[in-house]
Amino acid sequence: MSRKQAFQFLDLPRTMPQRIPVELRTSGDWGELYGKFGKEDAQFQAGRCLDCGNPYCSWKCPVHNAIPQWLQLVQENRIHEAATLCHSTNPLPEVCGRVCPQDRLCEGSCTLEEFGAVTIGAVEKYIVDTALATGWRPDMTAVEPTGKRVAVIGAGPAGLACADQLAHAGIQAVVYDRYEQIGGLLQFGIPSFKLDKAVISRRRNVLEGMGVQFRLGVEIGRDVSVDQLLAEYDAVFVGTGAYRYTDGGLLGQDLKGVLPALPFLVQNSRIVGGSDAHGRPIAGWEDQIALPDLDGKRVVVLGGGDTGMDCVRSAVRLGAAKVTCAYRRDEASMPGSAREVANAREEGVRFLFNRQPLSIEAGADDEVIGVMVVETQLGAPDASGRRNAVPVEGSESLLEADVVIIAFGFSPSTPAWLIERGVEAGHNGRIIAGGQGRLPFQTAHPRLFAGGDAVRGADLVVTAVAEGRDAAASIAQLLSA
Ligand SMILES: Cc1cc2nc3c(=O)[nH]c(=O)nc-3n(C[C@H](O)[C@H](O)[C@H](O)COP(=O)(O)OP(=O)(O)OC[C@H]3O[C@@H](n4cnc5c(N)ncnc54)[C@H](O)[C@@H]3O)c2cc1C
After folding, report:
1. Same domain? 124 vs 56
2. Range of the domain at 128
3. Which residue among 306, 414, 420, 423 is best mutated to probe the pocket of ligand 1, counting the most ligand atoms within 8 A of its Cβ?
């Protein structure tokens, strides 16, 4: 390599695909924010990869994508081969290219980070969108059917990844979901400005083409029992996600005008309104909310994670006059993706850091008038290593609001029908899977496996994918024994 080639990254800047202009976003455009790279842009970015020999990008990626290798294939315009390589580690690469917090994962570990990381996520999206549009499909010709059948509960990223790997292992996967559409939170949690729902429909076609079957609008534990599944199938994978809502126990949280984040996002997704295919409320979502008109309103969102960012940016698109995100630690401690915070800021969202909510206040007519907050300072780290937010005495103030959205996060809750079959639940509601004497992701019931948010707690699409894949490998091992 010449000296000029070695230092070319200094002249070639990092670029992102074009974004929908902010005026359109703030006037109600729900389209995917980032456009697509064309061939030249993708090759340009791929050409910036130093092939540094220590691919921290791959190492940091929970599914260990072969990033330098597929960037090389993009430079050579071998897009179908790049798509095959992307799918060898991740069955939902076009989704991860769109929603992964790359700034904390692959791009955050790129050797070029200081100069502007290679735009890995956008190139991943380019590879898979281009390959699928030009007829590429996973090659199943070498797969030999084993005659085994596995039920997958939950069509979220964990369940879909598990089904994909089972299909590759010649095992018939039948995926059950209480919703009539696949995707889990990809479909009804993450807003369309981050992930166009047509992407999920296209993935469904790909999976069905591989032989995966879907039984949608079926809630396990209500319409079909887990005993029926255990009788009909050789094994069962549970990827039911994390839906126990953390409300923070704030005084005033039941007031009119206070909304929990997920039902708010679901109703906005305009796909499912919190009911299943038969119009029945989904278990745990019986407390349906009537979505207030946000037009011209002052909205305060409590919480600084991905869900909080999706809420503030949805409120902007719904015409709110003023949107504020209050977070109890400092900006550097925010769990949400820095890219999403930057997008929210650009859309006019105001961030108030180091503000801990104390109570939600009502006016004379019992309607919300605001959130009482206290300023905080960061104290000593807690058991997880995160610094505690310590209230500063006497710094209380009222943050005025017409609508308050609570986005403190979610945790799993192991269903009773699993506990009755001997599956153990952790103290925090997680399904206990793996551990001494068990295959990875195998529960205390030898034919029941579990992964994704239901096991690790609310996390990321890519970690759910990683666990679904690894659980499928364990199931294949069990069934071949
Ligand atoms: C608002 C929001 C925004 C997010 N944004 C991002 C982001 O930008 N990037 C990112 O990486 N992650 C993001 N996440 C996290 C990510 O969506 C989850 O970590 C991921 O979807 C977990 O996958 P899963 O398959 O474990 O569960 P889920 O996606 O929750 O899927 C579980 C599925 O199981 C089904 N199910 C549950 N119980 C039953 C039953 N008894 N019978 C039948 N079906 C059942 C549910 O209907 C659901 O479809 C976000 C999460 C939220 C809430």
Report:
1. yes
2. 3-133
3. 306
